[in-house]
Amino acid sequence: MGAGRVAIVGGSIAGCAAALAMTRAGAGEVVVFERATGRLHGRGIGLAVHKDRYAELEAAGYTDADMPWVRLTRRTWITREGGGHAGRVLGAVPFPFRSYAWGPLWNALRARMPESVAYVQGAAVERVVPGPDAAVLCFADGREERFDLVIGADGYRSVVRAATRTPAAPGYAGYLAWRGAVPGELLPGPRTAWPEGEATTVTFPGGHMIAYRIPGPRGAGISANWVFYTAPPPSAAAALKDPTSLPPGMVTEELTAHHAEIVERHFPPYWQDFVRATPRADTAVQPLYDLAVPHYGQGRLVLVGDAASVARPHMGGGAVKALQDVVVLERSLRSAGSWQEGVRAYDAERSPSGRAVVDLARRLGHAQVEATPDWPAMDERTVETWWREVSDGERGFGGHALDRAAR
Ligand SMILES: Cc1cc2nc3c(=O)[nH]c(=O)nc-3n(C[C@H](O)[C@H](O)[C@H](O)COP(=O)(O)OP(=O)(O)OC[C@H]3O[C@@H](n4cnc5c(N)ncnc54)[C@H](O)[C@@H]3O)c2cc1C
């Protein structure tokens, strides 16, 4: 493909990994343009990575054992009905995942970025103009820069995607995820109420909350991560037609009260204490979107991570998908004779798996939020059967195997 100039728009998980990929693929110059100023590492909470997907990413050289993680082994679904202090377990399935704290993971990827890469912050790309032999980035101050390849790692509202010939837009799923983190020292007792290694799903009509332990914010100690999914109250829904995330400190009183009311009405006492132990400053709300694009790459434009597809987080695979995209991009460009050939190979491999992940996540959301079963009526056998059906036998849950790229 020749040692050309590559721009990466967005310097989060996908952007940092893409910078490493492009250097390895032989690009002459790599520049990352990140809109945010300051460090990103303090802003995320937790994420889970399937152990098999982790092994593939480690083999490809994108993750390593130094990144702090916590071992998860099983997932339970619990109800308050007929249960004691910590609720009644309805059923359980194996959950072979590693959990990470978003900040230390981002830090580790940022630290792996070769020194030759320029990471420019406070650089918001306003527009991208594609051409046959190059693409031009246009910045807010009127500056323009030309690159041989532009990689869109700029998340679900990607400006790079908007410049493609098939600029699909994300569709709001109609419900929200409240996210929070409980510092280890604030976890309610007794310790035995919440077994180590367990990802607990607290059920209620119209949604659920999943909670699991993650590494502490700076990679030391333990913290706990929770994600609570349900529809907003009708009074707030109209204002959420095309909603954006509400970061910590910005969650409205109405949404905070809605969450608190459901917790009080449906959660077992232990899990009420757990949620209430969350510092208000550590609670955020994220509207959920579905986005599948027909093409991951066209001409001199390439999409990776959330810019390319957005799956509801029930999948446990957002960061995995972003890193897999980057692994395949590196291999596609490295073995190609031209930029166009490399982009075509990447598109052919990643577009179908991106769509499959979005479909599976939509189905998982439907079954666990939009059309919840009569949870208290379920038992070990029905939970297992129901889960096998909604998760498609776990094919693709936590992300599809890297397949061709892993060989
Ligand atoms: C601060 C932060 C915290 C997160 N925390 C969590 C978490 O706790 N758990 C979880 O599961 N997921 C979290 N996510 C989402 C997660 O990173 C993604 O779902 C997934 O890893 C794919 O990442 P991405 O790099 O493709 O997209 P994103 O992580 O969304 O990153 C996109 C990046 O592009 C930048 N950007 C956007 N537009 C422009 C532009 N026009 N010009 C320049 N830069 C631009 C944004 O500032 C951002 O840094 C977080 C994302 C961010 C940005």
Question: Strands, helices and their partners?
Answer:
Blueprint: E1 5-9, H1 13-24, E2 29-34, E3 46-50, H2 51-59, E4 70-84, E5 87-101, H3 102-111, E6 118-121, E7 125-130, E8 135-139, E9 144-147, E10 149-152, H4 159-162, E11 171-183, E12 198-204, E13 207-215, E14 222-230, H5 234-237, H6 253-266, H7 269-276, E15 283-292, E16 297-298, E17 301-303, E18 309-310, H8 318-334, H9 339-370, H10 380-390
Parallel strand pairs: 1-2, 1-10, 2-6, 4-12, 10-17
Antiparallel strand pairs: 3-5, 4-5, 7-8, 8-9, 11-14, 11-15, 12-13, 13-14, 15-18, 16-17
Helix pairs in contact: 1-8, 8-9
The structure holds flavin-adenine dinucleotide.
Give the gist of this structure:
This protein has 407 residues and is an alpha/beta fold. It has ten helices and 18 strands. 30% of the residues lie in helices and 30% in strands.
Description:
GO terms for molecular function: FAD binding; monooxygenase activity. This is 2-polyprenyl-6-methoxyphenol hydroxylase-like FAD-dependent oxidoreductase. This protein has 10 helices and 18 strands. It is α/β, with parallel strands linked by helices and 407 residues long. The strands form 3 sheets. A 9-stranded mixed β-sheet has the order 3-5-4-12-13-14-11-15-18, with helices on both faces. The protein starts with a strand and ends in a 17-residue tail after the last helix. The model has no long low-confidence stretch (mean pLDDT 92). Bound molecules: flavin-adenine dinucleotide (FAD). Flavin-adenine dinucleotide binds at residues 9-15, 33-36, 40, 43-47, 102, 124-125, 153-155, 159, 305-307, 313, 318-319, 322.
